[in-house]
Amino acid sequence: EAQVTQNPRYLITVTGKKLTVTCSQNMNHEYMSWYRQDPGLGLRQIYYSMNVEVTDKGDVPEGYKVSRKEKRNFPLILESPSPNQTSLYFCATRPTSGRSTGELFFGEGSRLTVL
Amino acid sequence: SQQGEEDPQALSIQEGENATMNCSYKTSINNLQWYRQNSGRGLVHLILIRSNEREKHSGRLRVTLDTSKKSSSLLITASRAADTASYFCARGNNNDMRFGAGTRLTVKP
């Protein structure tokens, strides 16, 4: 079954305590992306990756880091979380080769609260 | 900045009625996509329309695209209570996809 798996699904943490949200996909997709969703603002892109070792900033990259060492994994790292990073986070993937229809496949989301 | 803006922000209708949601965008696109999100869940792809297409159908969904006006509409016919969700348009290009704030649709039984 095609899956995009995010962990943790829910997390409450405190300001300054480093955390990582993992994203793993089993579809061999080249493209992976992180979004955050906030009320009234829709989904805003944080970072994306076109393939292994290739990452680029999205609209709201400040305070976040990513890495793409393997094709299937794209972790989102918050080195020093702050309350304004309280949000619902989504990982999404799609192929970029000729078989791509442009459709994004989303994970179920990770709800993060920073106190 | 957001690349797709949905209108209205919220829509409430009775079961059986049609629901129309609109999306405007600012820059040229390769394609425009519509997604659905049940409360707090991941987004699910509904339909994609390419920039050289004007209309597309999928079941009870009808999407139109007017590139001269930089706008798209999503029509859900004969709505059901299970259609209650948020609907997002997304502009796609080669590198990324940008979403609007969505339309919250409530279908009352």
Q: What would your notes on this structure say?
A:
The complex is a heterodimer of chains A (about 120) and B (about 110). Helices cover about 0% and strands about 50% of the residues of chain A. By secondary structure, chain A is mostly beta strands. In chain A, the strands form two sheets. In chain A, strands 2, 4, 5, 6, 9, 10 and 11 form a seven-stranded mixed β-sheet that branches. A four-stranded antiparallel β-sheet of chain A has the order 1-3-8-7, with no helix packed on it. With about 110 residues, chain B is mostly beta strands. In chain B, the strands form two sheets. In chain B, strands 2, 4, 5, 9, 10 and 11 form a six-stranded mixed β-sheet that branches. Chain B has a five-stranded antiparallel β-sheet with strand order 1-3-8-7-6, with no helix packed on it. Chain B starts with a strand and ends with a strand. Classes of the chains: A mainly beta (about 120), B mainly beta (about 110). The interface of A and B includes residues 50 and 92 of A.
Question: Which structural traits does this protein have?
Answer:
heterodimer, A: 115 residues, mainly beta, four-stranded antiparallel beta sheet, 11 strands, B: 109 residues, six-stranded mixed beta sheet, five-stranded antiparallel beta sheet, 0% helix, 58% strand
